[in-house]
Amino acid sequence: MTHVEEVTDKPAERERATPREWLGVVAMAAGTFTVVTAELLPVGLLTPMRTSLGVTEGLAGLTLAITGLVAAVSSPLLTSLLGRFDRRLVLCVLMAVLLTGNLGAAWAPDFGVMVVARVLVGIGMGGVWAIASGIVVRLVPPKSVRPATSVVFSGVAVASVLGIPAGAYVGALAGWRAAFMAAAGLALLVLVAMAVFLPGLPAEQAVPLRGVLRLFGEPQMRTGLIVVAFLVTGHFAAYTYVRPVLEDVSGAGAGTIGTLLLVYGIAGVVGNFISGAGAGRSPRRTLMVISAVLAATVLLLPAVGGSLPVAGVLMAVWGLSYGGVSVSTQTWILAASSPQAREGASSLFVGVFNGAIALGAFVGGQAADGIGITSAMWLGGALALGALLTAATGRAPSSGKL
């Protein structure tokens, strides 16, 4: 029996998803985890990368900004340009691009080669993340769509909080280049899993680029995207430079920083599930709490983080709050869009999210190089307060139900 024959029983015709369909969902979750981990790896590797490549901390931080900027531009463009191609094929090609980018980063003899490699990573991650949400409804029966969507986007949340400390640990044990090699190996495994477990997903209809951009004109959508812009920019203005801040304020070494980032990551996974439940009832209230807690934590770290135990508590609270950002903002965006517009809304969300990552890494680097490394924390806290104000006063969907 061929793979095509195995999936001729369409998901919409059944009530429950089959084990093979859930394997496809898990493959997609592994895909979102892999692309976001690859994007964020420089955060935990900033100091050794900077030393090896012979650049400043702010310039090294641009390896994150470049990837985020490319992903922001490529996400809506790829959704439109590749709309006529089989989604399984597109996803496999994008994972191959991500694999190549990670290999290039691991090899990079200088900053110029690293920039090219990170551009490839940005293309791969922007396309995979944008396409992921649009195909979930085609992988499982209608009654399984909501849990399947949660599983797929848990990859984003878990990568945001666990991918960075994992990369930092690998970097501490075997060098920063080994961390990028590990990311390349993971991309290869996910590529194979997608090829094996995803069914053929022929194109349904192309998504016009102007139709995607027009969604920004809807008040609830616009408010949600502005909250994303403030919150994610603020977080990455601070978090991109958390390693040198901890080294400077707390006197932490590489091993201790890896532990602190792991504490952050574990707390973030907990925050993902707590916020996911809260966002289902009220995205506005959930994001207001997240914004307030994140702002307070980031502002307190340079002031009282000189004690390692206190720094550990602050990192845990930071992870708890930011761990809920991805699921809460995605819930807001999906609740604010019609079912027919969800792929376009998701690509716009991914574009803004990654543009905010790029902007945060850039402005944080400018502050760090121009004023001092702890100023990146103050900037991040101020932007998180902007997210709080926007969420409190803007138009929001009444609930987060998909």
Write the layout of secondary structure elements.
Layout: H1 3-6, H2 19-53, H3 57-81, H4 87-107, H5 111-139, H6 145-174, H7 176-197, H8 209-214, H9 219-239, H10 242-249, H11 254-281, H12 283-304, H13 308-322, H14 325-335, H15 342-370, H16 375-393
Give the % helix. over 70%
CATH architecture identity: Up-down Bundle
Uncertain regions: pLDDT < 50 for 5+ in a row?
1-8
What structural category characterises the helix and strand content?
Answer: mainly alpha
Count of DSSP H/I helices: 16
Task: Describe the fold and architecture.
The chain crosses the membrane at residues 22-46, 58-82, 89-109, 115-139, 151-172, 178-202, 223-242, 254-274, 286-304, 310-335, 347-365, 371-392. The two termini are 35 Å apart. The protein has 402 residues and is an all-alpha fold. It is globular and about 55 Å long. Helix 2 (19-53) packs antiparallel against helix 3 (57-81) and helix 2 runs antiparallel to helix 7. It has one domain: MFS general substrate transporter like domains (Growth Hormone, Chain: A, Up-down Bundle). Helices cover 81% and strands 0% of the residues.
Key phrases:
402 residues; mainly alpha; Growth Hormone, Chain: A; disordered N terminus
Could you provide a short overview of the structure?
The chain is an all-alpha fold.
